[in-house]
Queue: 2 jobs
Job 1
Amino acid sequence: MEKHANALVAHYLRSHGYTNTLSAFEQELGVRFNPNKPLDNDESLDSILADRINYLESIGSSSGVDYKDEDEVNKLDTIVHSDLIKSKKIELPHWSITIPNVHQTLNLGTLSALIISSSYFNAIINDKAYNLAIFLTNTRYLFIIDLDTNQIVLSKFDVFGNGQQIKTVIGIDGTSHIVLCDMNGNIASTALLPDNSSDTLQFILSLVTSPLKLHRRLITDFKFLSFNDALNPKLIGYFASIGWDSRITVGRVLQNIDDENSIDFDIIGDYKLFTNPTCLLILQDTKTNLPIVIVGRLDSSLLTLFTITSHNDSKLVELAKLSLNDSEFSSHSFQPMAITEISNVSSLNNDKIITVGTDHIPYMRLITVVVPSIHEIIKPEDDKEEILFSELTKLYESNKENTESFQSNTQILRSYIFSNFNSLSPQDKYSNAILLSRPNCSGIWIPGDDGKLRGFDLRSGTVFETLDSNDGRAKSAFIGKYGLNSQFEVMAVCGAVDKKISIWKCNT
C-alpha cells in the first residue's frame, strides 16, 4: 500500500514538473523511481482525486448536505474592486510555505503570573545586535529573553521603584532604549547596559527618566516609528499613543545630548476623539517621510488618519477618515479592534497597505485597505514639498480645536477596500484582538480565542496553517526575527487563561 502511494506521488510530481521536490522526495525515501515504469493500476493521482471529489459532490447533492470546507468560506466574500483599486494594480503575494517547526513553552518562574505585555526588540548594545523578547507580568516583573539563546538576560522587579504597575513596554529598535508606560498615563524610559559583573550575557537597566504625562488616564497602546534626519541628528523617531481619555497623542523621541543612555520625549500635539480609541498604527509616508498615524475607535467603522505639518515646526493635523464600510450612510455597524501593516508589497507605488481586524462575532473579519499617500489625499497644485506643507498648515488652521466634531469638514476616503474576509478566528466582545503581520508580507498570524494560531493568506482568503498554541485566548503576542542576521521568523503568544508563553520558530 505504502509503496503504491509513494509511486503515485512521484508520478504526480514528475508529470507536473516539480523536479526539485521529486529529488527531495526520493532522497527522503531512499528510493529511485523509474520514470518509464507504468503505474500498477493505470490511474494517476489526478484521476483518483477527481473521481473522489465527484463522488463526494454526488453524495452531498443527494443528501442535502453542503460539504464546503474552510478554504471555501471566503469565496462569496471576495469583493469587486473599485476602479481606484484596479488602477493601482496591487497584487499581494501568496502565503510563504515556510512554517514554524520549533515550538517551545517558556516558563519564567513567576508562580503563574499573567503576561500583560510582550514585544520584540531588535537592540543594539555596544555596537552588537541582539534579538530580544520583552515580557511584563501583572506582578510587576520585567523579563527580557535572548531569542537566539533562549536565555533570560534581565529580570527586574518594580522597575519604577515606587510600586507603580507598568502597562506597556516597548524597545526602540536599533538602540538600547526601552519605553515604559504606566497605569496613570505617564511614560518614561530606561536603557539596557551590559552587566560586567556576570560571567554570562546579562543586562542591567540604567536610571529610569522622570515620567512625562501623555494621557489623563491609562495608556492603552504606544507605537514608535524610527526616523533619521540629517538636519536634526538628535531625532530618533516619532511616537503615537492612545488612552482611556479618548485622546491620541503624537510626539518626537530625541536623544539626550548629555546622557547617551537617556532619551527625551517632545509632544507635538493631541486630539480628542468622540469615543475611546481601540487600535493604533504609525506609518511613514513614502514621498514626504512624514508620519501617518492611523486610529480606530469605538462605535465607528471609520479610521482616522493624522500627520504633522512638517518635520520642523510641527503641528498635529487630522488628515482624513478612511472608510472600512462599503455603505455610504452607515459607519457604526462594526468597529476596528486591531491594525497591522502589510509591508514590502512590490507592486505598491507611494501607497501603504494595512489589514484591520474587526469586532465581528463569532469570527473576526479581516479588511485589507489601501492607505493613499499624503499627496493623493491633499492633492496640492504642485509636487514641491513647500506647497504640500503649506496645505497641511491650512488644514491645521481650519481645526485648531483638535477635537472631533460633527461640523468637521474632514474628507472621507472611500473605495480603498482591497478585500474583506472571514478570518475563521473565534472571538467575543471580551476578546483581545491581535494581528501579527509576517516580515515578508506573505500573510498574517492570528491568535484566536480557541488557543489556535492561524496563518491566513490575504491573497486567497484561506487559513493555511493552524497551530495548537495555548489553552484559551491570548493576552498578548508579537512577531519578530532571530538567528544570524535575523533571517528567521519567531512568534510568541502569551495565554490569558493558561498563562503560558508559546514560542514558535522557523529555522529553515
Job 2
Amino acid sequence: MVSRSFCKRREMAAVFPAWIMVTILVLEASLVMGGFQASLKLERRIPLVSHEVELGRLREFDRLRHGRLLQSSGGVVDFPVRGTYDPFLVGLYYTKLQIGSPPKEYYVQIDTGSDVLWIGCNSCNGCPESSGLQIELNLYDPGSSSTSSLVSCSDQRCNAGVQSSDSGCSGQGNQCSYTFQYGDGSGTSGYYVADLLHFSTILEGSMSANSTAPIMFGCSVLQTGDLTKSDRAVDGIFGFGQQSLSVISQLSSQGMAPRVFSHCLRGKNGGGGILVFGEILEPNMVYTPLVPSQPHYNLDLRSISVGGQVLSIDPSVFSTSSSQGTIVDSGTTLAYLADEAFDAFVDAITKTVSQTVHPVLSKGNQCYLITSSVTDIFPQVSLNFAGGASLILNPPDYLVQQSSIGGAAVWCIGFQKIQGQGITILGDLVLKDKIIVYDLANQRIGWTDYDCSMSVNVSANLNSGRTEFVNAGQMSNDGSSPYQLQSIIASLLNMIMLAALLFS
C-alpha cells in the first residue's frame, strides 16, 4: 500500500517543476523589462540542452545590430561615477573612459567648468605616477593605438578651438596645441589627438550596446600646480562645457548623443552617482535659463534667502559680466560667494543660530560648536534665480563638518569668499544629492533633490523625433547594487533548485 505522504510528494513533484519554470521566467522577464537596474547582464541560469552554439551566435549578431542601430540614431550614453564631495576624503567626482584601439581605461574628473577632455600622455612632465584614490593611472600613448591620429593646425577642429581660445598652433610639427590654466593655479599644456571613444549606449528598457565614436581630445605633456600631486590624482579632466570641442558637443554633432546631459552626485555613503548624456526625468524638476553668450554655465542669480528672509544684497552684485556672475561647476569642491554678498550671508546664518550654538573661528572660517543635529538647528537657504526657480539648500548643503570634540561636532560654513571678486561658484557641496540637468538644446539648467543611489528615467531626444526612456540608475558603478542584486537572484534560483530536489 502506498502511503499518503508518498502520494503527496509525487503530486508536488508533478506540480513543482512548472512552478520553478514560472518563477525563473518571471525573474528573467523582470530583467528584460527594466524592472531591475539597467546594468544587469542577462544570463541564462539553466543552460540550453541543444542549439547552444547557434543561439550564442544569434545573440552576438543581435548585439552588433543594436550597435549599428545606435550608430545611426543616437541614444542615452552612460558613464560610471566615483568619488565624493567631502574635502576631507576625496573632494572630487570622476568617471572612467575607454579610449583607443585596443581600448585602455582612464579615470578623469567630471568638470562642467571647462570644455575639453584631456589625458596625460606618455611623454608627460609632471604627471603623477600613482594616486591616493586607489586607482591605477594610465598614460595615453598615441603610438600604441591603431586608430590614433594627430590633429594638425589646418584641421577645422583646431580652428574651432582657436576661436574659443582652447587651442593654438605652436609651429612645431604643425601640431594643434593647447594650454589651460585653472582657478587654483594649476595648469596643463599639450597637443590634440583624435581617437575612438568606447562607451555604453542604453536602448529602450534595460538593453545596452557597445558603441564607438571618433573624438578629439588633449594629450597632456606638461602639468603644474596641484595637478602634479598624487593624493587625489586622476588621468585627466573631462570637460562638459558648451564649446564645440567638448565631448558632449562632438557626440551630439555626430548624432550619437542628445544635446543634454545630467548628473546626480551622491553625497552620502561613499559617494558615486549617475552621469548620462540624456535628460533625467523627474516630476519636481525646476528650470532656469542659462545666461546667453557665456563661456561657462552662468545662471541669473537674483537674491538669497536665509530662513525665509531675503538678504539685503544689491542685485547688481550677481549680474553677469566678464568679471562676475554665477557659475555651475562640478569641478569645484566647495562653493563660493561674491565678495559683496559673503558677509551678509554668513552674518544671517550666525544670527539665526546664535542662541543655540557656539560660534567659533577656525582658520579664518566661520564655524559652530554643535551638540545636536544641524538640520534641527540651522535654517534653510534659498538661492533665487530668474524665472522663479529656487535652489533650496538644507544645512548639509552649505555646511561642512570639520571635526568632532567629545560629544560635540564642529561644523563650518562651506561657502568661501573670493576676495575682491564678484564670482559666485556653485560646486559639489551645493550640487550633491540633486539631479542636475544641463539642457543645451533649450539653454537651461534644471534641478531637484534626489537620492542618487536610486534609479532614474532618462529621455534622449533623437534626430528621428523619437524619445527613448531607460532605467539608468547606477548602471556601471563598480561595487554598486546591481552586482548585489545579481548575487541575490542567483541565490534565489539555487534555493528553488534545491527545493525541487527535496520534493522530487
